[in-house]
């Protein structure tokens, strides 16, 4: 294992070095939070693919393939579909807004007063996303070093917090690009063909497994529909995803770079399902389907290659974890803390804002590590996060982009009613049930439409400023309060 250890250690040291290098570039709020909005197509595509394909997509995707066969690809496939939909239909408009958070977009569209409540919901989502990614370090380091769970979480989490705090989005972008390359080589070019060959090829796999393992819909129509609601729609509105859209240097880059990343996700989904199916042939009696990835890597790959593939799994976890962490800190600082305190940025406060956001990443990072140590059920935490996100924020965000009659009162009603409905239904039906997101989304939509129709339409000046921003003709706002006309 010495060669494998060397590969992993070199990789981790490289991540920290890139964090240090990124710190030298992150001199302004824009550089620190959105990489100066300067990413070109290649880097944008790679980093976008890196953040959406995390530990759940890699370890969980292989586990679903082990359990259901090729139809296990649907979870990651719906993530790719969501990224494609975001890129083709919305990313150009989102990039032209020149904001930093989803809540700022809501304030611009509705004329203020929607930011704090929506910020709290988005903060809870990004926090849980960061926590679930951080917990995944325990699985990987256990395979690598037979390490204690708590120590593994602290080690992996501390590295992510360190490079994220140092350089912000620049560090995360640089590390994500490396992680994208490592994942592509480790999972698609090495583990996939080796797993299929060791399982005897597709012919042998078909002979040894039930026919439903090769049914594209074998996982079940209701499950696929739920994946679409949670993951496809979740991709459209998550702060972690939008913050990457904000890094694009043009709306064309956001559209076509995101399309490439979404297509890559579809291929990654199929690869994970095939690897899991091969693992079912090789190890038919695993107690836990999520152990399939670690088992096939540990037993079937030669040394050196094994280290690279485990580095790929680590890369998948780190990319999602760092993206969720900076999104969580950005929302906490810009949408909640600053608004509640009524802060006004000083004239020369750009550098101070970098320090403030850096401090929030450190604070949120410590909180994520502590929460990850205390929490056991990853699936339940992730389900709560996505249910709150989709049930509370999908309708007011897409409604703001697509329906000009929507009002701030309607948006707030949708967030509150949808969020409370999801929480209540999860308490009634169970966290993992499908009903909470179904009925929560419907109640959010009903509240949004009904309240918007019975309240005064959004001020014409606000809508005019919104259209100017969507068209890319307005200057970038430095404060939400400055972006909204004073009479509101």
Automatic annotation (TrEMBL):
Transmembrane regions: 6-23, 44-66, 72-95, 116-140, 152-173, 180-203, 223-242, 263-283, 308-332, 359-378, 384-403, 410-431, 437-455
PANTHER family: SODIUM-SOLUTE SYMPORTER-RELATED, SODIUM/PROLINE SYMPORTER-RELATED
Record flagged with keyword Transport: yes
GO cellular component: plasma membrane
Family statement: Belongs to the sodium:solute symporter (SSF) (TC 2.A.21) family.
Localization terms from the record: Membrane
Membrane topology: Multi-pass membrane protein
CDD domains: SLC5sbd_u3
GO MF entry, a single one: transmembrane transporter activity
Protein name, as recorded: Sodium:solute symporter
Pfam families named among the record's database cross-references: SSF (PF00474)
Biological processes, Gene Ontology terms: carboxylic acid transport
Annotated coiled-coil segments of the chain: none
Keywords, in A-Z order: Cell membrane, Membrane, Transmembrane, Transmembrane helix, Transport
Gene3D superfamilies on file: Sodium/glucose cotransporter (1.20.1730.10)
